[in-house]
Amino acid sequence: MGKVYTLAEASKHNTAKDCWLIIHGKVYDVTKFMDDHPGGDDVLLSATGMDATNAFEDIGHSSRARSMLSEYYIGDADTSTIPAKVFKHKLPKEPMYNPTSEFIRFFRFMVPLVILGGAIGVRVYTQ
């Protein structure tokens, strides 16, 4: 077991020249990996200052990527300093289903098809 870091401590390392991530309660110094990350360094930088576990898991990293984490491990996260998940998005005030929008969506699909069908029909009958 390595040193234990708080979220505040890990959050200070949030640049391309000094980047730490918290994933599954462990702290990783990924600074040396910034240039090699397939998703680019912006992806890693956007995951600093928080628990990046969900971001890491949502991407579906390979077993090779998971095994690479051990190279960058520097310690454990003090999970008591990581806030509980909070909804960042407000729920919509109007209902999710809107019959009018379904009608409009249908016609956005059908109008080009009718035009295409008409053009093909004119082409066939004028030959």
Automatic annotation (TrEMBL):
<keyword id="KW-0813">Transport</keyword>
<comment type="similarity">
    <text>Belongs to the cytochrome b5 family.</text>
</comment>
<keyword id="KW-0492">Microsome</keyword>
<keyword id="KW-0249">Electron transport</keyword>
<dbReference type="InterPro" id="IPR036400">
    <property type="entry name" value="Cyt_B5-like_heme/steroid_sf"/>
</dbReference>
<keyword id="KW-0408">Iron</keyword>
<dbReference type="Pfam" id="PF00173">
    <property type="entry name" value="Cyt-b5"/>
</dbReference>
<keyword id="KW-0472">Membrane</keyword>
<feature type="transmembrane region" description="Helical">
    <location>
        <begin position="106"/>
        <end position="125"/>
    </location>
</feature>
<dbReference type="InterPro" id="IPR018506">
    <property type="entry name" value="Cyt_B5_heme-BS"/>
</dbReference>
<keyword id="KW-0479">Metal-binding</keyword>
<dbReference type="GO" id="GO:0005789">
    <property type="term" value="C:endoplasmic reticulum membrane"/>
</dbReference>
<dbReference type="GO" id="GO:0046872">
    <property type="term" value="F:metal ion binding"/>
</dbReference>
<keyword id="KW-0256">Endoplasmic reticulum</keyword>
<keyword id="KW-0812">Transmembrane</keyword>
<dbReference type="InterPro" id="IPR050668">
    <property type="entry name" value="Cytochrome_b5"/>
</dbReference>
<dbReference type="InterPro" id="IPR001199">
    <property type="entry name" value="Cyt_B5-like_heme/steroid-bd"/>
</dbReference>
<keyword id="KW-0349">Heme</keyword>
<dbReference type="GO" id="GO:0020037">
    <property type="term" value="F:heme binding"/>
</dbReference>
<feature type="domain" description="Cytochrome b5 heme-binding">
    <location>
        <begin position="2"/>
        <end position="78"/>
    </location>
</feature>
<keyword id="KW-1133">Transmembrane helix</keyword>
<protein>
    <submittedName>
        <fullName>Oxidoreductase</fullName>
    </submittedName>
</protein>
